[in-house]
Amino acid sequence: MSDTIEPVIRTRGLTKRFGRRTAVDGLDLEVGRGRIFGFLGPNGAGKSTTIRMLLGLLRPHGGEAYVLGARIPAERLRVAGRVGALAEAPAFYEYLSGRRNLELLARLSGGCDPRRIDEVLELVGLRERQHDRVGAYSHGMKQRLGLAQALLPKPELIILDEPATGLDPQGLVEVRGLMAHLRDAEGLTIFLSSHLLHEVELICTDVAVVAQGRVIRTGRVDDLLSRSTAQADVQVDDLPRAIQVAEALPYVSAVQTQDGWLRVSLTGEMIADLNRDLVGAGLRVAALSPARSSLEEIYLTLMAENRDAGGAAR
Amino acid sequence: MLAALRVELSKFYRHRATYAGFLLLAAMAGLVVYGAAQDARGHERRAKAEIQASLGGDFIVAGKIMSAAFVPRAILAAKLPVFVFVASLVAMAAGGAIASEYSNGTLRTLLSRPVRRTYVVLAKWLVNAGHAVSLILFLGGVGTALGYIFLGGGDLVWLDFAGGGGFQIVPELEALRELTYAYLLQGLSMIAVASIALCISCAVGRSATAAGITVAFLLLSGMLGVLPFESLEKVHPYLLTTHMSTFEHVLDSAPEWGEIRRAVFWVGGYAAAGLLGAIAILNRREIQC
Predict the structure, then answer these.
(1) Whole-angstrom distance, CA of residue A260 vs CA of residue A243
(2) In this complex, is the C-beta atom of A53 within 8 Å of any C-beta atom belonging to chain B?
(3) What is the mean pLDDT of chain B?
């Protein structure tokens, strides 16, 4: 799969206000073709508003947004047939069957082969219940139907707002597999917002973290994880003394204890030095293993830093 | 555009609630026929006496007074069935066209597809306009059919002594033709009501609000039309209800066609303004729900 050649989504200074509140504040984003892009942020950070602007449902007050090269909202119709979307909670005509809903939406996209409807229903695991009224579906089933309608037009890009909401653990695994399949087999670009950071870490190739309508960190998931603070979990014979020694070391930024282990945060790749200095201080090191921050830890750190920066600015 | 229309038709006529209005109107027409059939003898006696009195007592009035055509004529004359019942049903359906889709989120799904908002409004307008006309024609049709079953055929004998119109005897076929015109013209009125409701539906977030505002608008218009104040008379020629009432005059023995044409122009203008307003509002609307 090719890396970023031409951005599938590009925003520059995208801004949206609701009254006096600025929901999206000069947002800059770039999503490369064939990537699975996670859009993370706390409630009210402007994720859904951004997605709605990308879909042409809301008009920006400033900046610009391009989807598949078309300026949004002015040229939305030119590319809308190549974009599948699930904006927030899936909404369907509850008195109609799942299949009938898909047929109607397909008709609005210029129609589609009934076999394609079978195909997407199969992909999301709703084939057996396709003729049931949507009103009788569980939330998770509606979510699957939402994914099915997003995939219906064989899109190049799918934009999903919280696609994992309401799915059971089995469903989460299936959706994760489905996304990987869509990217690898069909070359789809997937842009998704989610609160499930573990899922994002497993699925996404890239992320952008937003807070108060601004991107505070963006990049490849691998890069973010590798650039995060290096940590080491250490098992020693004398824990209180080990804490004293570790805290005095110049390359140690934090020391915590957890279940009889010492978690040491390092300012660089200094694990060998740490081992040498602990042993040099007369401690018996029984085990030492490198540890990495998870995306969740990185996210929480970023949020805390953003809060502190906001507080300092005030 | 055709795709949007087919989608709207499919959604509209697969919804059970769509048929509730037709059932209600059938029940109402049934009630009118039941009342007419029960009171037929008494009504005929009174009618013959009134006709004889109006002719100076020199004539013997014989024959059938109450016939099938009496039912749709009575429904129109009563005003309430059309101006309140049918108008409310039309307002509820068209008022929910956009607002209910907005509140339950399906508008978001719909507008994420490659479809112009203008086409969505036009498709909904066509479906609701068709529904409005079909409701009014259904009311007249069911009334006439039930009238034939329970009252039988015959010329239309219509008394309007209270309104100073005397009495009118219209041959059966001519009466049915005139009634068809009158119902079709009221169909135009209902299209105007649907357009206004659709326009409001594009601006609000709940279907009940859109329907409520539309009905309130009609009631206000009707009230302004009957308030006996000279200062308010200036607005009468511009009120929708003024022109809706004019359509009944197509049943007069000598209809004033100029007045009826003017009413068609005004009611058509209301319908067009509602539709254009709906298109303008939805095209500017932010889909937040």
Answers:
(1) 12
(2) no
(3) 88
Does ipTM top 0.85? no
pLDDT in tens, B215-228: 999 999 999 988 88
Quote the minimal CA–CA distance from A90 to chain B in Å. 8
Q: In the A/B pair of chains, how many CB contacts fall below 8 A?
A: 71
Work out the minimum CA distance from B98 to partner chain A, whole angstroms. Answer: 13
pLDDT of A84 over the 50 cut = yes
| Residue A14 to chain B, least CA–CA distance (Å) | 16
Cβ-defined contact of B16 to A109 (cutoff 8 Å): no
Q: Which of B106, B113, B287 sits opposite A52 (nearest CB)?
A: B287
Is A80's CB within 8 Å of B15's CB? Answer: no
Helix (H) or strand (E) holding A202: helix A197-203
Q: Which residue of A has its CA nearest to B10?
A: A104
Q: Between A226 and B36, whose confidence is greater?
A: B36
Of A309, A91, A54, the C-alpha closest to B105 is A91
pLDDT of A3 higher than 60: no
Tell me the sheet residues that pair with A24: A16
Percent of chain A's residues with pLDDT above 90? 42
Nearest to B11 among A58, A93, A111 (CB): A93
Contact criterion met (CB < 8 Å) for A81 and B115: no
Does residue A117 surpass a pLDDT of 80? yes
Question: What number is the average pLDDT over the span A260-274?
Answer: 82
Pairing of strands B156-160, B166-170: antiparallel
Residues of A in Cβ contact (< 8 Å) with B14: 95-96, 100
Chain B residues close to A85, C-beta within 8 Å: 112
- Whether B57 has a pLDDT exceeding 70, the answer reads no
